[in-house]
Write a structure and sequence with these properties.
This protein is of the alpha/beta class and 400 residues long. 38% of the residues lie in helices and 14% in strands. It is elongated.
Length: 400
């Protein structure tokens, strides 16, 4: 038996930025061999983008390093004539191809599903896009924040007296990555029974709608949009006390909990007059303000202890650095690291799924552009002279 769940699976990763690379990283964490095909020189566009104008090791993008561990890099100019020879050779042995180019780009280059299916009928070809491969938005850019705006997520987030607020992470892209993985794994299982591959299509627009299933169902069936509260109520469809509340030294969250029990902890019986379904929704901003006056007199730790003692669903609000040090995060081993040749030791979030027999593992740092070009081509039968010729022509590049 293999020591990793996907140890005998080879993935040809033609993707860039977040959606595709996160999907292939998830597969790589489970043992898949992932060959990341990048442009010579610049590589994945995420290598040139970063947050806060900060670069690890002076040159390495945290954004790229986050989504590309456990892969090898082949720097290949897909527009070069000889690129077809290389890709077609890799596809002969590949199980999964992942790409998130704009629809039609790879077809024009000869690397579309129909092209690769002729070479390997067992290939599972996963296409990630913003809006699908047809329709009125076909030529629009499909970026994460744009999708959050289009699908109602931003309009449902934030306070009613302020602007819509996108989620503070690449949520649409990450949902898209999960959909690619679930599609690819289902297709692998089907291939075991049928012997043939298929084309998996994932788009961010449909993905974000699906992941707001309860909100969409509510709005569509009652023909009423949610109205954001003006307070810290945590969801536009929820009543009080569901929300975020201030303390002397921070913030706490309170989820679905008996209102009277919360009032009992805070010690203001006058608040019980709101304890009916009509007021808890219609007067939720007013109730939030009254509750916040009381929570603000407590330290976070003291309030948490008092709420947990009576089984109120609650939690502290933490920054990313505070989350790293959280005792449960530490207990789970949810933070790991890898050693990178330029960036040095890089702290990362560990794989989130636990397997009893085939655990996910971090075995490689994110690669340099073309770091494994020679190694990969040699494995696929290209002679040293051929590899040298490909490098000399600029079709292939290797890191120095």
């Amino acid at each position: 038996m293999n020591s990793k769940a996907l140890e005998d699976v080879t993935v040809l990763d033609l993707s860039h930025l977040l959606q595709g690379p996160f999907a292939t990283q998830l597969l790589a964490d489970l043992g898949a061999t992932v060959i990341k095909v990048e442009r010579p020189g610049q590589g994945d566009l995420f290598r040139t983008l970063t947050f806060n104008n900060r670069w690890l090791g002076g040159t390495e993008s945290p954004n790229f390093l986050a989504w590309n561990r456990n892969k090898r890099s082949l720097a290949l100019d897909l527009k070069a004539t000889q690129a077809r020879e290389v890709i077609y050779k890799l596809v002969e042995k590949a199980d999964i191809v992942v790409e998130n180019f704009r629809p039609g780009v790879l077809d024009r280059l000869g690397f579309g599903y129909e092209d690769l299916k002729r070479i390997n009928p067992r290939i599972i070809y996963c296409s990630g896009s913003g809006y699908g491969d047809s329709g009125p938005y076909l030529k629009r850019p499909g970026q994460d924040m744009l999708i959050q705006g289009l699908t109602g997520l931003a309009a449902a987030t934030g306070r009613g007296d302020g602007p819509p607020v996108p989620v503070g992470a690449g949520f649409s892209d990450q949902v898209g990555a999960m959909n690619i993985v679930y599609g690819a794994l289902a297709a692998l299982y089907w291939r075991e029974r049928s012997g043939v591959g298929q084309h998996i299509k994932v788009n961010l627009l449909a993905g974000m709608l699906a992941h707001q299933g309860q909100e969409m169902l509510m709005a569509m069936n009652f023909e009423t949009d949610f109205e954001r509260p003006n307070s810290g109520i945590g969801h536009p469809g929820m009543d009080a006390p569901f929300g975020v509340y201030p303390t002397k030294d921070g913030w706490v969250t309170v989820a679905m909990s008996p209102y009277s029990r919360l009032v009992g902890v805070l010690g203001d019986d006058s608040l019980l007059r709101y304890d009916n379904p009509k007021d808890l929704f219609e007067k939720r901003d007013e109730i939030w303000a009254r509750l916040a006056e009381r929570t603000a007199t407590w330290n976070t730790e003291e309030l948490m202890n008092a709420l947990l003692a009576v089984d109120i669903w609650c939690g502290e609000v933490k920054t990313h650095l505070q989350a790293e040090q959280d005792p449960q995060v530490q207990h789970l081993g949810a933070i790991s690291y890898y050693d990178h040749p330029i960036a040095g030791r890089v702290k990362v979030v560990a794989p989130a799924v636990s397997f009893s027999a085939t655990p996910a593992e971090i075995t490689r740092p994110a690669p340099l552009v073309g770091q494994h070009s020679r190694e990969i081509l040699a494995e696929y039968g290209f002679s040293e002279d051929t590899v040298n010729a490909l490098i000399d022509s600029g079709t292939v590049a290797q890191s120095s």
